């Protein structure tokens, strides 16, 4: 049975999330629900599609998998039961290299890389709440895509477990990652610069 839309006056869990209407998209960060509407723009979808294509092609015969939203990533902060998890996000793209974290509901645990495509309505959440959650969850790399600037900024965990900006790539460049030798993301194609 579906419950009505969540209210921001209490802490919610993955157990609550599973009861919400399927036609609505939500994320929970620290027990706080975030509505994921409106529908992403055409440019957002084109960027997501091209990134997915290039990443999927690279990982075709490798042990990592690439997933596009909607795809639930549950980020437990300890050993809590699945239904008690208070962090459930849907990154635009996730690269998961520990396939034991995959189940029929998505991913439980930290992906190797999460990628978020910024829009004016999501910028604060992506650059604050999600940044802090991904850092706290020890996700090795966080890529932030700025469609209006045709730029991708890469953050990597340092030895103290804090994100440091390790790259800023413009549309004319090729994005590489020390996590994946040989990976070359052609940003001219991602941003469709002709």
UniProtKB/TrEMBL annotation:
Coiled coil: none annotated. The keyword DNA-binding does not apply. InterPro entries: Nuclease_put_TT1808 (IPR012296), Restrct_endonuc-II-like (IPR011335), Uma2 (IPR008538). CDD domains: DUF820-like (cd06260). Residues 16-187 form the Putative restriction endonuclease domain. Keywords: Endonuclease, Hydrolase, Nuclease. Pfam families: Uma2 (PF05685). SUPFAM superfamilies: Restriction endonuclease-like (SSF52980). One of its GO terms (molecular function) is endonuclease activity. It comes from the Bacteria. Gene3D superfamilies: tt1808, chain A. This is Uma2 family endonuclease. It comes from Syntrophomonas wolfei.
